[in-house]
Design brief:
Elements: H1 28-36, E1 46-55, H2 60-71, E2 73-74, H3 90-93, E3 96-104, E4 107-115, E5 131-136, E6 139-147, E7 156-166, E8 169-180, E9 183-191, H4 196-213
Antiparallel strand pairs: 1-3, 2-5, 3-4, 4-9, 5-6, 6-7, 7-8, 8-9
Length: 215
């Protein structure tokens, strides 16, 4: 995760040694299922991006995330997107996915829904990623992350809150990841302050959509 003052990315580790085979675009029925799992624009926010449907590695938000991580220098590179979907994994890179982004003057929300094998789900945050440093666009940034211990939703779920501080700026990043069957939903909320209660409520709403789409 590389975030400061509203810039964010999903996990974007260095490309795997072997390039995953190209995957075709989702079939219409699958594309409709993925779209159905996405949230509508929350009150006070507007659609800033998408919805875009395609293979995960080809989506604009994924490619922008990769570029953001390439431009950042971290003292723990493995923390760039720890506990988030890893596009370096072939099964994630070629997976059918849908992404939408919302924005308001107070912050942004990015949601992705990805069709993955049941065993594919981000692992817990490594201990060394609770606090780390990065050099992002000429600014030294400190990231501090805590596990929000969310009540279990779906088959697996995790939530984290990260505070990014650099220069005279600070941003908070809340993430929620939920799996139901072969669908994995991830939310990233970025703002000056991200409240746990609001993040949990948004995750609950997203899970309701996910549960209907996963049937």
């Amino acid at each position: 995760m590389t975030v400061i003052a509203g810039c964010s990315s999903e996990k974007a580790a260095a490309p795997a040694a072997s390039t995953p085979p190209p995957a075709s675009a989702p079939k219409p029925a699958e594309a409709a299922k993925l779209r159905a799992a996405l949230l509508p624009a929350p009150k006070g926010m507007q659609v800033a991006y998408g919805p875009e449907v395609g293979t995960y590695s080809t989506l604009r938000s994924t490619r922008q995330g990769l570029e953001s991580v390439r431009q950042a220098k971290l003292d723990h590179p493995e923390c760039a997107g720890a506990a988030l979907l890893d596009v370096a994994q072939p099964e994630v890179a070629k997976a059918p996915a849908a992404v939408v982004g919302f924005a308001s003057p107070k912050g942004s929300i990015t949601q992705a829904v990805v069709s993955l094998p049941a065993g594919v789900f981000p692992g817990p945050l490594p201990s060394e990623c609770g606090a780390y440093h990065a050099h992002v666009r000429g600014i030294d940034v400190v990231y501090r992350t805590r596990d929000l211990k969310m009540p279990k939703q779906g088959d697996e779920s995790r939530a984290y809150l990260t505070t990014a501080s650099g220069g005279d700026r600070q941003a908070q990043i809340g993430t929620v990841t939920i799996r139901r069957g072969t669908l994995v939903m991830s939310l990233m909320v970025v703002g000056r302050e991200v409240k746990r209660a609001g993040l949990m409520e948004l995750g609950k709403l997203a899970d309701q959509n996910l549960s209907r789409a996963a049937v």
